[in-house]
Design goal:
Layout lengths: L1 H17 L4 E12 H6 E14 L4 E14 L6 E15 L6 E21 L2 E6 L3 E16 L2 E12 L6 E13 L2
Antiparallel strand pairs: 1-2, 1-9, 2-3, 3-4, 4-5, 5-6, 5-7, 7-8, 8-9
């Protein structure tokens, strides 16, 4: 999983440099699981990088990759669910000026695995981290607040990963820095 993440990050940086990305937003992530996923897993942490490609003064194409991990709770204590989102989407800014709110939406692959061990009824089960790729979507909103030559990037999003039986869903909160490449 770590080799895959390293490969994805290097690939995205190479892609960004070769396609004249406008900038990158590097963000810390806090996730709140919902539904069935929230029954078995607790708060998640991680980080993402989003490359920004301008189409017009208010519309951008985005490419996002990251790493997010959720710890198990209750019967799932001792497990972790780790996911690498690889998404392509768009962002629409509402206004120009000092503070710029935006709406974004993306779709793509969520490469996830569950690892760790759990004991149920005196029997210990070991999960080796079977990795699976699932389709998913992310939608949300945020705001860019300029600070010197960079901007704070504050956002909230909703993620839905298609899985068998029910969807894996969570709300994510991002706090990061947008760094322009010019």
């Amino acid at each position: 999983m770590k080799r895959l993440l390293s490969f994805v990050v290097i690939l995205l940086f190479a892609f960004a440099v070769n396609t004249n990305a406008q900038g990158v937003s590097v963000q810390g992530f806090l996730g709140l699981p919902m539904g069935d996923f929230g029954d078995g897993f607790g708060i998640g942490f991680g980080g993402t990088a989003t490359f920004i490609y301008p189409v017009s003064s208010t519309v951008d194409i985005t490419g996002t990759a990251g790493y997010e991990t959720f710890g198990g709770k209750d019967a799932s204590d001792g497990l972790s669910f780790n996911v690498i989102p690889i998404l392509v989407g768009g962002r629409i800014a509402f206004g120009e000026g000092n503070v710029t709110p935006y709406f974004d939406a993306a779709l793509g692959l969520f490469i996830g695995s569950t690892s760790g061990e759990v004991t149920i009824g005196g029997v210990t089960y070991n999960f080796e981290g079977d990795t699976q790729s699932k389709f998913g979507i992310r939608g949300g909103f945020g705001v860019l607040v300029p600070v010197n030559s960079v901007s704070l990037d504050l956002g909230a999003n909703f993620d839905l990963i298609t899985t068998e039986g029910s969807s894996t869903t969570f709300i994510g909160f991002d706090l990061g820095i947008y760094i322009p490449f010019n």
